[in-house]
């Protein structure tokens, strides 16, 4: 255990464009927590080097190393960081806020994320979307359904769990940005997935995206290879 008041040294292992690593970077930057950046690339991850598998036996990023302890799973890392650095809380101040924020995180993780990631982003990134454009259009329609609860929540409050940015917003943002990025690809437009104008078709979500793009730390956490 570190002494009271002693700085906590974090190292973050990440890959540019990984929505899961991006969540943790957003949390660190928003909280203004210093960390040593250990950027990896997908080829390095694919090598499954024993030293990295010791940090995460699943061989995935993000991994946060704090002293000699390694933690993986993005939502767990954000919860850990919130305990370690409570000054800018991401899981609320009251027990009601805490429960509400976890509920939102759970809704995104269980009912929205895989639809976006597994059914739309991966087929487009890996090139097999064109094998079945009809299935892709059906997935895109389901994506709109799966985003409905967010549109509703954001129609009554500026952020997913109320008036402040919380872990719920930070968990959801990178997957939505990734969806928008692949939806703008020519092959997605050609397939008429109808996701390229998501910000217009879901106006409350569109306004939330604009707010989130101005959050503290957004630019620092933005995937560097997306800028080029
Ligand atoms: N559930 C994990 C997902 C992590 C994940 O899937 N990371 C991907 C990058 S987006 C990865 O490292 N993939 C490399 C691999 O599976 O070999 C989390 O939330 O941290």
Q: Layout of SSEs?
A:
Elements lengths: L9 E6 L3 H13 L4 E5 L1 H6 L2 H6 L7 E4 L2 E4 L1 H11 L10 H17 L1 H14 L6 H14 L1 H9 L10 H17 L2 H5 L7 H4 L1 H10 L5 H4 L2 H4 L1
Parallel strand pairs: 1-2
Antiparallel strand pairs: 1-3, 3-4
Low-confidence stretches: none
**Beta-strand share of residues:** 5-15%
Structural class by sheet pairing and helices: alpha+beta
Level-1 CATH class name of the largest domain: Mainly Alpha
Dominant shape: globular
CATH-derived topology of the largest domain: Glutathione S-transferase Yfyf (Class Pi), Chain A, domain 2
Rg from C-alpha positions?
A: 18 Å
What does this 3D model show about the protein?
The chain has 228 residues and is an alpha+beta fold. It has 14 helices and four strands. The longest helix is centred in the middle third of the chain and has 17 residues. The termini are far apart. Bound molecules: glutathione. Glutathione (GSH) binds next to loops.
What attributes characterize this protein structure?
Glutaredoxin, four-stranded mixed β-sheet, 2 domains, single chain, Glutathione S-transferase Yfyf (Class Pi), Chain A, domain 2, 228 residues
In short:
This protein has 228 residues and is an alpha+beta fold. Helices cover 59% and strands 8% of the residues.
């Amino acid at each position: 255990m570190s002494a009271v008041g002693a700085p906590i040294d974090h190292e973050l292992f990440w890959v540019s464009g990984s929505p899961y690593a991006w969540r943790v970077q957003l949390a660190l930057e928003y909280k203004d927590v210093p960390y040593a950046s250990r950027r990896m690339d997908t080829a390095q991850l694919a090598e499954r080097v024993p030293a990295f598998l010791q940090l995460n036996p699943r061989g995935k990023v993000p991994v946060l190393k704090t002293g000699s302890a390694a933690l993986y799973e993005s939502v767990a890392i954000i919860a850990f960081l919130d305990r370690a650095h409570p000054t800018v809380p991401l899981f609320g101040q009251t027990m009601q806020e805490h429960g509400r924020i976890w509920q939102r995180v759970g809704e995104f993780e269980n009912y929205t994320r895989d639809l976006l990631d597994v059914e739309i982003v991966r087929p487009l990134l890996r090139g097999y979307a064109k094998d079945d454009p009809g299935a892709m259009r059906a997935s895109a329609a389901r994506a709109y359904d799966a985003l409905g609860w967010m549109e509703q929540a954001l129609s009554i409050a500026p952020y997913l769990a109320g008036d402040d940015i919380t872990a719920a917003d930070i968990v959801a943002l990178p997957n939505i940005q990734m969806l928008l990025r692949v939806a703008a690809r020519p092959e997605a437009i050609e397939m008429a997935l109808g996701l390229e104008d998501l910000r217009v078709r879901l106006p409350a979500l569109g306004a939330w995206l604009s707010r989130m793009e101005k959050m503290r730390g957004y630019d620092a956490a933005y995937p560097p290879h997306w800028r080029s």
